[in-house]
């Protein structure tokens, strides 16, 4: 699985300081292959979506889209004041089927025509399934990533499409697990930026608001819960920052390759990394980066890294605490704090120092 | 735990290559003689149970499997329904705490979903519906601070130990246990890394999961090959459930061997938890959605939080030490006691302390950690470089309760205000008056506000004393 497109952008938005990850996204590397080339062996852990997970997601989407998207219409229509029975649907997955490499450009062209009609005040479909947008990833707009929401629904009041995501996460008492939502929200933020970029070309970008619509599953099988519209200002802001990181990663790679083209794995040591807790569960290199930082404060988590600096050598820190001397007054303050914390661990200061020594 | 204390604990664990205790006393009362445990295996991202191990954590578990969990067939769960009902009925009859152990948060979510799926499902048998309500009550109880019924092993261990790895890695129960129960001669960090390659979140190992997925297609076709495939699926699921069960048992064992003393304050939490849970079982209700039930729910949560805070700060010296670092516990010397008539109100206690961080103001309620004396601070001052506090004693004016002049002790601001009786009356009056602004549907209220010209600010001001 490659980390290009929305997936890459979302990953970069979660760790803006990791240039290596941004470079991986810019180059659209396939992670297990890149891992093998970089580390010299196969990735030992689990990677990629499981068959069973994919099946559930596909079933949920198929269920929503069958019978002219009857269930999806019923879920999103009332949210936007649309009558589900008369909503006009265009399903690009049926109109332009095929592998991503060939169908994306076709779908994009169709979606551009729909947006042009919208700008011209003509009739447009209320619901577009599998629409396609292009998100510029360089300031000159020459480079872009394809972005495809699960659907886009027309807000008849604002006369603009709102991106929508279908997820088989289960809603209980109108609540979804926050961890599940974070990635989905960031995904939707990339879609908002892509729609805005498209709308800009048509002169209707002011209509695009930082909001998206989500359709989740109920606990009862694959039926959808009522759609939820969420404002996504923070996520859109972070995705915008991710785009600037993309650009600087591209420039850095160009600089490093000025002397000769070298594959990314050969340049990896030149690219700054930023190991943090969220790398686990998102980046295939997490354990490797942790191994590189194994005696640094970063391995003790984000709080520890914020407190003493992720690059702080833990052995050095322990020596400072035990000796209690340093040329830097800020170190002394921290050392004093750590020593005093001994009581909250049930130890006297001397006991703590003895055990640390 | 403050960030510095957390860092100090993790540094120590890193140095000693083993988990470090961060509490003096157990946050839970001892397991009753009969305890129940549940270790489920779900379909990834589907939260549907495909295998479940259950029973006493001290015995071999019963394992049920569902070769096709996406089907409408759920008779396999009847065995769990029966065992859980039997366990809860016994606890109810004997009045003992019905303790239920789960390995991790993911298992709790699965139990909660069993509740949602079956409690009102008309296609399910009455036994499964009953199980649905019981699972729902378990999940609901788990949301209360300090509850003593539902023990999520990974949460419990994280509350009592810290490790030399990042908190995110502590989320994996196997990796956490690598630090708490280190294998002699093996570096816990490496062992944790190795264990983390296999998920500990109630799912099958990747290879087994993919295999089951393939076998399901064959099993669905039936015939001899289908029967063989089903048997193979069941074996894989059983192995998965038993692996989860083993981790749960190891976690429980690690906790009870952690050497934590018991705190007397926890008994009150256990009583509250048991009463609340039995009430939920006897009065199954859907999640609160109206003002009245939401108000009651909010109050119960708030009260549970207060009771827990008091129990922890008063009962555990390490927790109290952290409260002291935040200025919410004060070590002070009794300077003087002013009590015109012995054993009678009024009674004032004058304290002095050299503690730097102190968040005590006029009006703050302070109590001794044994709860014998409670006083309201009426004056905060300074004398000779020390802070002075004058307290009007509101409870504990008898000579046997009062501290000795010159004695040094801890005073804490975690004083639970038991307003259950008053709240009961308030809620009763609310229901009786049934003010339309509270009890009407939202649409009706919107119209009413416009029509009646109701000024909520003026109403609020009028209610102030």
What this model shows, in words?
The complex is a heterodimer of chains A (357) and B (465). Chain A has 357 residues and is α/β, with parallel strands linked by helices. A 6-stranded mixed beta sheet of chain A has the order 1-2-5-6-7-8. In chain A, helix 1 packs across helix 7 and helix 2 crosses helix 8. Chain A is elongated, with a radius of gyration of 25 Å. By secondary structure, chain B is an alpha+beta fold. Chain B has a 6-stranded antiparallel barrel. In chain B, helix 4 runs antiparallel to helix 11, helix 9 runs antiparallel to helix 10 and helix 12 packs across helix 13. Chain B starts with a helix and ends with a helix. Classes of the chains: A alpha/beta (357), B alpha+beta (465). At the A-B interface, helix 4, strand 6, helix 11, helix 12 and helix 13 of A face helix 1, strand 1, helix 3, helix 6 and helix 8 of B.
What gross morphology of chain B would you assign? globular
Can you write the helix and strand succession of chain B as a string? HEEEEHEHHEHEHHHHHHHHEEEEEEHHHH
Structural class of chain A: alpha/beta
| Strand arrangement in the largest pleated sheet of chain B | 8-9-12-11-10-13
Radius of gyration of chain A in whole Å, from Cα? 25 Å
From the alpha carbons, calculate the radius of gyration of chain B and give it in angstroms. 27 Å
The biggest sheet of chain A, with number of strands, parallel, antiparallel or mixed sense and barrel status, is: 6 strands, mixed
Mean pLDDT score of chain B? 92
Q: Treating each run of at least 4 consecutive H or I residues as one helix, how many helices of chain A?
A: 14
Shape assignment of chain A: elongated
Strand content of chain B: 15-25%
Largest sheet of chain B: 6 strands, antiparallel, barrel
Determine the N-to-C terminus distance of chain A. 47 Å
Give the quaternary arrangement of the chains: heterodimer
Work out the helicity level of chain B: 40-55%
């Amino acid at each position: 699985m490659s980390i290009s497109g929305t997936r890459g952008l979302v990953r970069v938005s979660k760790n803006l300081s990791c240039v290596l990850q941004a470079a991986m996204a810019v180059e659209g590397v396939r992670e297990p292959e890149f891992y093998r080339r970089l580390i010299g062996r196969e990735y030992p852990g689990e990677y990629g979506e499981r068959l069973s997970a994919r099946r559930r997601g596909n079933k949920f989407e198929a269920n929503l889209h069958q019978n002219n998207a009857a269930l999806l219409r019923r879920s999103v229509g009332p949210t936007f004041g649309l009558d589900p029975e008369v909503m006009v649907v265009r399903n690009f997955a049926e109109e332009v089927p095929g592998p991503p490499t060939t169908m994306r450009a076709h779908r994009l062209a169709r979606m551009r025509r729909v947006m042009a009609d919208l700008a011209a005040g003509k009739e447009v479909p209320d619901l577009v399934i599998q629409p396609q947008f292009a998100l510029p990833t360089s300031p000159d707009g020459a480079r872009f990533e394809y972005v495809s929401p699960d659907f886009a629904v027309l807000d008849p009041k604002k006369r603009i499409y709102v991106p929508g995501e279908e997820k088989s996460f289960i809603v209980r008492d109108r609540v979804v697990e926050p961890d599940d939502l974070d990635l989905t929200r960031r995904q939707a933020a990339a879609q908002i930026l892509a729609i805005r970029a498209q709308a800009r070309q048509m002169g209707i970008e002011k209509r695009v608001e930082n909001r998206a619509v989500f359709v989740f599953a109920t606990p009862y099988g694959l039926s959808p819960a009522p759609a939820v519209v969420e404002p996504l200002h923070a996520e859109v802001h972070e995705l915008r920052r991710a785009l600037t990181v993309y650009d600087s990663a591209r420039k850095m790679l160009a600089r490093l390759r000025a002397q000769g083209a070298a594959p990314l794995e050969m340049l990896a040591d030149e690219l700054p990394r930023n190991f943090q807790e969220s790398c686990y569960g998102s980046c295939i290199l997490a354990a490797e980066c942790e191994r590189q930082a194994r005696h640094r404060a970063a391995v003790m988590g984000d709080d520890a890294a914020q407190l003493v600096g992720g690059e702080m050598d833990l052995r050095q820190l322990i020596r400072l605490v035990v000796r209690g001397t340093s040329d830097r007054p800020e170190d002394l303050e921290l050392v004093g704090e750590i020593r005093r914390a001994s009581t909250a661990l049930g130890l006297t200061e001397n006991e703590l120092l003895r055990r640390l020594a | 735990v403050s960030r510095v204390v957390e860092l100090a604990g993790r540094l120590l664990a890193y140095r000693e290559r083993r988990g470090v205790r961060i509490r003096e006393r157990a946050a839970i009362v001892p397991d009753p003689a009969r305890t129940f445990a549940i270790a489920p295996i779900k379909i990834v991202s589907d939260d549907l149970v495909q295998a479940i191990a259950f029973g006493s954590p001290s015995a071999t578990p019963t394992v049920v499997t569902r070769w096709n969990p996406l089907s409408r067939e759920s008779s396999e769960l009847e065995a769990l329904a029966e065992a859980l009902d039997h366990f809860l009925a016994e606890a109810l009859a004997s009045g003992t705490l019905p303790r239920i152990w789960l390995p991790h948060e993911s298992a709790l979510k699965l139990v909660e979903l069993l509740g949602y799926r079956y409690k009102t499902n008309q296609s399910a048998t009455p036994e499964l519906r009953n199980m649905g309500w019981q699972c729902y009550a378990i999940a609901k109880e788990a949301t209360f601070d300090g509850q003593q019924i539902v023990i999520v092993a990974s949460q419990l261990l994280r509350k009592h130990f810290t490790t030399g790895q990042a908190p995110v890695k502590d989320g994996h129960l196997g990796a956490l246990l690598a630090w708490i129960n280190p294998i002699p001669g093996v570096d816990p960090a490496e062992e944790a890394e190795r264990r983390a390659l296999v998920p500990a979140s109630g799912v099958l190992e990747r290879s087994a999961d993919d295999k089951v997925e393939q076998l399901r297609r064959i099993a669905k076709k039936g015939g001899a090959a289908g029967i063989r495939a089903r048997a193979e699926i069941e074996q894989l699921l059983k192995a998965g459930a038993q692996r989860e069960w083993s981790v749960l048992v190891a976690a429980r064992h690690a906790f009870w061997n952690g050497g934590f003393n018991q705190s007397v304050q926890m008994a009150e939490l256990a009583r509250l938890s048991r009463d609340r849970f039995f009430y939920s079982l006897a009065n199954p209700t859907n999640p609160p959605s109206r003002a009245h039930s939401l108000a009651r729910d909010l109050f119960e949560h708030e009260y549970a939080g207060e009771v827990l805070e008091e129990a922890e700060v008063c009962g555990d010296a390490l927790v109290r030490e952290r409260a002291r670092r935040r200025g919410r516990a004060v070590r002070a010397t009794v300077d003087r006691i002013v009590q015109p008539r012995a054993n009678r109100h009024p009674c004032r206690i004058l304290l002095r302390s050299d503690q730097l961080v102190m968040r005590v103001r006029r009006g703050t309620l302070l109590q001794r950690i044994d709860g014998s004396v409670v006083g309201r601070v009426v004056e905060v001052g300074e004398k000779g470089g020390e802070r002075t506090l004058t307290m009007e004693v509101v409870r504990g004016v008898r000579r046997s309760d009062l501290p000795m002049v010159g004695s040094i002790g801890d005073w804490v601001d975690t004083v639970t205000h038991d307003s259950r009786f008053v709240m009961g009356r308030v809620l009763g009056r609310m229901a009786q008056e049934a003010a339309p602004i509270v009890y009407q549907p939202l649409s009706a209220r919107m119209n009413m506000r416009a029509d009646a010209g109701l000024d909520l600010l003026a109403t609020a001001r009028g209610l102030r004393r």
